[in-house]
C-alpha cells in the first residue's frame, strides 16, 4: 500500500489492469481490501471502479474540496473530478 492509507479524496495511480498508469481519486472505501475510484472521464461518479488496494499506488496528494464533498454527501460532478486530476497532473509535471 506504499505506506499511505486510502482515504476519501486521495489521489492514486493504477498499478494493474487495463487502466494501468492512469490517475484516479478514491471516492469510496468498501473494506480493508477494496476502494472505489473514479476519474470523471472513463470512470464517472455514476460508475466508480472497485479496485484492490494492492493495485493502487497512492500519492501524497489529496483533493481537499472533493474529500469534503464526499464526506458531507454533497453531489460531486464529473467535471470537478477531471479538474482536480488535471491540476494534480500539472503539479506532478512541474515537480519532475
Entry keywords:
single chain; 96 residues; alpha+beta; SH3 type barrels
Strands, total number: 5
Helix percentage: 25-40%
From the alpha carbons, calculate the radius of gyration and give it in angstroms: 12 Å
Low-pLDDT residue spans = none
Q: At the first level of CATH, what is the class? A: Mainly Beta
Folded structure, characterized:
The chain is an alpha+beta fold and 96 residues long. It has one domain (10-95): SH3 type barrels (Roll). It has two helices and five strands; from the N terminus they run E-E-E-E-E-H-H. It has helices spanning 64-72, 78-95, and strands at 10-14, 23-29, 34-38, 49-52, 56-62. The protein has a five-stranded antiparallel β-sheet, with helices on both faces. The longest helix is centred in the last third of the chain and has 18 residues, at 78-95. The protein is globular.
Please write out the topology:
Elements: E1 10-14, E2 23-29, E3 34-38, E4 49-52, E5 56-62, H1 64-72, H2 78-95
Task: Please give a quick description of this structure.
The chain is of the alpha+beta class. Helix content is 28%, strand content 29%.
Amino acid at each position: 500500500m506504499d505506506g499511505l492509507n486510502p482515504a476519501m479524496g486521495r489521489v492514486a495511480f493504477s498499478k494493474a489492469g487495463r487502466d494501468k498508469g492512469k490517475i484516479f481519486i478514491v471516492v469510496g472505501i468498501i473494506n480493508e481490501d477494496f476502494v472505489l475510484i473514479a476519474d470523471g472521464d472513463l470512470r464517472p461518479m455514476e460508475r466508480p471502479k472497485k479496485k484492490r488496494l494492492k493495485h493502487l499506488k497512492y500519492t501524497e496528494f489529496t483533493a481537499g474540496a472533493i474529500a469534503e464533498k464526499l464526506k458531507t454527501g454533497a453531489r460531486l460532478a464529473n467535471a470537478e473530478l477531471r479538474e482536480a486530476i488535471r491540476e494534480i497532473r500539472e503539479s506532478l509535471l512541474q515537480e519532475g
